[in-house]
Specification:
The protein is an all-alpha fold. Helix 2 crosses helix 4 and helix 4 crosses helix 5. The chain is elongated. The mean pLDDT is 86. InterPro entries: YneK. This is DUF2621 family protein. It holds the Pfam family DUF2621.
Amino acid sequence: MNDIIMWLIALWTFVMLGLLIIGGYFMFRKFLKRMPKEDGYSELDWQDLYIERALPLWNEEARKLLNELVTPVPEIFRDVAKERIAGRISKIALDEGADDITLDHIMKGYIIATPKRDHKFMKKKLDELQIDYAPYEDLFQYADDEKQKFSIFEQTEKISSRSK
């Protein structure tokens, strides 16, 4: 009986250690995103600033669409994903001097803010909502992946200079 208890304790130790390592990894990534860059602001500071500035541009229909687009994301990460996508959409709309957030802005921001590994799920969701993403196919190359990380500035500069 003592041997079983000792094995359970050892197993529980490894499980807890693994969970702590995984949690620490995600906390460290968040910490790095909060680190100020050369201009004194972090990537998340800029994201929050763009969202705040573009808040009057968001209509109810755009908010509903954004909420619908992030439903494939696991609920625990959904708020972070929504903020990231909303930050990209807001920056694009502000750069274009838009009066409202349109489907065009949402599509551009949604595509570049979604990591490449999730494009299969994203396309499935867009098909489900009957939204044609063919005009935006060239933007899929600007999405973040594990090898190359784009900042909020690089991505929107690249899409604003793309041929229409």
